[in-house]
């Protein structure tokens, strides 16, 4: 009888630890993947114009199986938030990396190409619809704030950023938001926009745990001041969705 009780107790202990380990594995699945971390690092270094470190990050991105076309799309997307000069220098650096890898006999995966957009309806309305999907909220009919002050910027945002760029495939909405929050985190004094896009990130499937890991991932590449600002903004956004 005693022997049976001991065996039962041992069985329960084993089951407990197995369950605990399983829970740890499930928790781990909510973290950022190696590809997602590479997206963050490549993007932040592009925004900062740190081409020496970017070269290393691009190699690492290819090593964790980001495709050539995915990285191209990441670098193209950055221009909407940090300008053509940074984006183009990033693309030129990527060209150098590919040539060097090719010379070493490394054949990287090209990946799928972007699907041609055949929708000929109003780009403004399409962009508005995509923005509604991203934010989870209907877009107001009446312009306000900076959009009312300078309506042209509202048109450019809807037609170009959210139609021409976000409508493209290759990258998912979640991946594009990782690119976006990484660029905004790397530049100065853009906390309101960062807050908006962190909220959008949660709407498109990025988890609170991943946003916390985002801070630790980007920290070495954006400097102390920006890291402090990003950490504060992420905390504010998460506090708004989590019970205190």
Automatic annotation (TrEMBL):
<feature type="domain" description="Carboxymuconolactone decarboxylase-like">
    <location>
        <begin position="24"/>
        <end position="90"/>
    </location>
</feature>
<dbReference type="Pfam" id="PF02627">
    <property type="entry name" value="CMD"/>
</dbReference>
<protein>
    <recommendedName>
        <fullName>Carboxymuconolactone decarboxylase-like domain-containing protein</fullName>
    </recommendedName>
</protein>
<dbReference type="InterPro" id="IPR052512">
    <property type="entry name" value="4CMD/NDH-1_regulator"/>
</dbReference>
<feature type="domain" description="Carboxymuconolactone decarboxylase-like">
    <location>
        <begin position="151"/>
        <end position="217"/>
    </location>
</feature>
<dbReference type="InterPro" id="IPR003779">
    <property type="entry name" value="CMD-like"/>
</dbReference>
<dbReference type="InterPro" id="IPR029032">
    <property type="entry name" value="AhpD-like"/>
</dbReference>
